[in-house]
Amino acid sequence: MTHVARSTLIVAVFFGLEKLLGFLRQVLIARTFGLSPELDAFNTANNLPDLIFALISGGALAVAFIPVLSEYLEKRGRPQAWELFSRIANLVFLVTAGLSLVIALFADQLVRWQLGIAPGFGAQQQALVAELMRLNLLATLLFSLGGLAIAGLQANQHFLLPALAPSMYDLGTLFGVLVLAPDKDLRLGSLHLPALNLGVHGLVYGVILGAALFLLVQVPGLLRYGFRWVPHIGLRHPGVLQVLSLLGPRLLTVLCIQLTFIAQDNIASRLAIGTVSALVYGWLFMQVPETIIGTALGTALLPTLSEQAALEQTEAFRQSLNRALRALLTLTLPAAALIAAGIQPVVSLLGFDETGVELVTWTARAFLLGLMGHSLLEVSVRAFYARQDALTPLLAAALTLLAFILLALTLGRSLGAPGIGLANALAFSGEALFLWALLSRRFRGMIQLGKTPWRALLAAIVSGLTTLLLLRLADSTLGGAGMLLQSASAVLAMGLGAAMTLPLIGNELKLLIRL
């Protein structure tokens, strides 16, 4: 197994752990608050803090910074690489603090503005959104530094602690939902957890605690690799200028991506109560396989692609992309089919009424139509940044934002939350096809798929039908069994559906191992 394959496995396992903890957190939140105005306010209040994190040190800086830091490690050594890291970290902290202060001061106006976050909410709900958003900005400061630490460790080809960090965040938020938010003590045998009755504010305090753990778990890794902080920025420093030259277009790219989700909530806030939260939960069910497959592979592959680009190993670069493409096709199509087939009993764990379960189920199925597209984007975007081309992904993201708004306005009016989910799937899948087509033109012979698409399609049909048949059998056997047993049978059916695909996609799995 190659280094990339091992790294992908490590990242996928810990991302899978995070998704399990995250799902548990979302189940507890849903059972505590339901599809309520308070939960809609909490989910909406995350938008601008998430935007700052994504722009400053999440998706923006990490992808723009790792290629430059990898180049410094290869050509100048670790001490100079860490000096550059310190300069960027200092700049990131100052910019994040400044933006957070501005948003905190103008939070009420940003929420009420017709082109803002939640113009369709009532005055009381809008005030709650503004209050929660100000608290969330504290977590954003911690997340920004933690995200930068992840970029530094991944550039050093260390993936364990960065993969563990999201689970630390989940532990903090679980403390919020189990202890800080509820109005009744929790007793599990001899374990007694007191309830502080802080309501939805307790969720935000849990987020802040989780953000602190997210950062602190990175510190041992930074010390192991010899990180030393220097109190300098130096905007004329060559390395800083090199990062900023990539970061500018990347900032605009991530801004377009985040504006997609702000536009999503803007449109959803004008629809029925619970639409915003239904989109959050529907997105969650698509994000679980997308993170484990697409994000894990893209994260592990970026440092290798960056090294291959820096050393001008064009053939190795082309082969890495071809293998990644074939692996993603044969993993995401069956995953989307079997999850769409077996998801409804799992959604029932959220504790919503029958109407709410149907709404979240169909919203999730709509998002799942874009699973392959989102996963392909994770690799294709990083391929451009590995070659320090930030303008092409920016163009693609701008077109995607425009396409999503037009589709969401049309489909949202007629189909509600599932329509907005479908708009997301169509827009981002179109972006993925566009970027891979450009890569194919730049690297002739890169897309040599052979029988991979047909095997992937056959695997999707087999996995989906197997899951449906097993669920029908379980329904007839279990009858009126409880919610937990029905959900467990659905998970088992999906697992068996996935197992049925292994003989069909064995060749592509071997390619993944050789990445």
Q: What is this entry, summarized?
A:
The chain is an all-alpha fold and 515 residues long.
What is the count of distinct domains?
2
End-to-end Cα distance, whole Å, is 8 Å
Strand order of the largest sheet: 1-2
What value does the average pLDDT take? 81
Q: What sequence of helices (H) and strands (E) makes up the elements?
A: HHHHHHHHEEHHHHHHHHHHHH
Specify Rg, calculated over alpha carbons.
22 Å
Poorly predicted regions are none
Strand content of the residues, in percent? under 5%
**Overall helicity:** over 70%
Q: Got a strand count?
A: 2
Counting H and I runs of at least 4 residues, what is the number of helices?
A: 20
Largest sheet geometry: 2 strands, antiparallel
Structural class: mainly alpha
| Tertiary shape | globular
Structural description of this entry:
The protein is mainly α and 515 residues long. The chain has 2 domains: 37-251, no CATH class; 271-515, no CATH class. The chain has 20 helices and 2 strands. The protein has helices spanning 3-33, 37-45, 47-56, 59-75, 78-105, 107-112, 123-155, 160-180, 200-216, 219-224, 238-268, 275-310, 314-347, 354-368, 371-386, 391-415, 417-442, 452-478, 483-501, 506-513, and strands spanning 186-188, 191-193. A hairpin with a 2-residue loop joins β1 and β2 (191-193). α2 runs parallel beside α12 and α12 runs parallel beside α17. It is globular and about 65 Å long.
